Amino acid sequence: MSCSSKKRTQTASAFSLVELVIVVTIIGILAAIAVPRVSSASGSANANALDANLTNVRKAIDIYYAEHGSYPGYSPGTTTPNNAAFVTQLTEYSDSAGNTSATYGSPYVYGPYLRSPFPTNPTNMLNTVAVKATPGTASPVPGSVGWVAVLSTGAFSLSASDADLIDKGITDPDRRGKILDIY
């Protein structure tokens, strides 16, 4: 083999600068197409997680009401809303008066309606609940707690601002309205 034939083989296996630029450009175009799809899917996943948490807790509240005749969050013997009672009455066994126990057995034959721990608000990662007696009662600052419950109506909502939902990628105004809506 001659010396010039060795050189041709070595140069034939290398990429030219033009080929590298073309490959990098193609990869850039593909990334520009894929990144927005992935980020919108993230927002959709956040919205779906919020919808699922809201639906699960709202159903648990409805079942508790059907079995006890009152909404969770009132301590037995009082009409004062109680944040801790709201959570424990949904996540532990209870008797007909709303007293709770971590173990099943007479008279604690109702529930639990949700698995412990209480669901986390995906916008601020809090699982705390601010319990209000009526819709007219002052609400906490959005995002200062995980959730807000209204005991006179059984309503349950996310504690977040519109901007919090947008930051999580939930940009559809109708969807944000449904998530923030207290039914």
Describe the structure.
By secondary structure, this protein is mainly α. It has one domain. Helix content is 46%, strand content 9%. It contains 5 helices and 5 strands. It has helices at residues 3-12, 17-68, 83-91, 162-167, 173-180, and strands at 93-94, 100-101, 129-132, 147-150, 155-158. The strands form 2 sheets. The protein has a 3-stranded mixed beta sheet with strand order 3-4-5. The protein has a two-stranded antiparallel ribbon with strand order 1-2. Strand 4 (147-150) and strand 5 form a beta hairpin. The longest helix is centred in the first third of the chain and has 52 residues, at 17-68. It is elongated and about 85 Å long. The termini are far apart. 29% of the residues are buried. The model has no long low-confidence stretch (mean pLDDT 82).
Write the layout of secondary structure elements.
Elements: H1 3-12, H2 17-68, H3 83-91, E1 93-94, E2 100-101, E3 129-132, E4 147-150, E5 155-158, H4 162-167, H5 173-180
Parallel strand pairs: 3-4
Antiparallel strand pairs: 1-2, 4-5
Keywords summarizing the entry:
183 residues, mainly alpha, 3-stranded mixed sheet, two-stranded antiparallel ribbon, 5 strands
Radius of gyration: 28 Å
Report strand order across the widest sheet: 3-4-5
Mean pLDDT: 82
Order of helices and strands: HHHEEEEEHH
Share of residues in helices: 40-55%
Structural class: mainly alpha
Q: Shape from CA axes? A: elongated
Sheet bearing the most strands, described?
Answer: 3 strands, mixed
Sheet-strand content, in percent, reads: 5-15%
Q: Report how far apart the termini are.
A: 85 Å
The quaternary organization reads as single chain
Instruction: Count the E strands.
Output: 5
Structural domain count? 1
Please give the count of helices: 5
| Weakly predicted, low-confidence segments | none
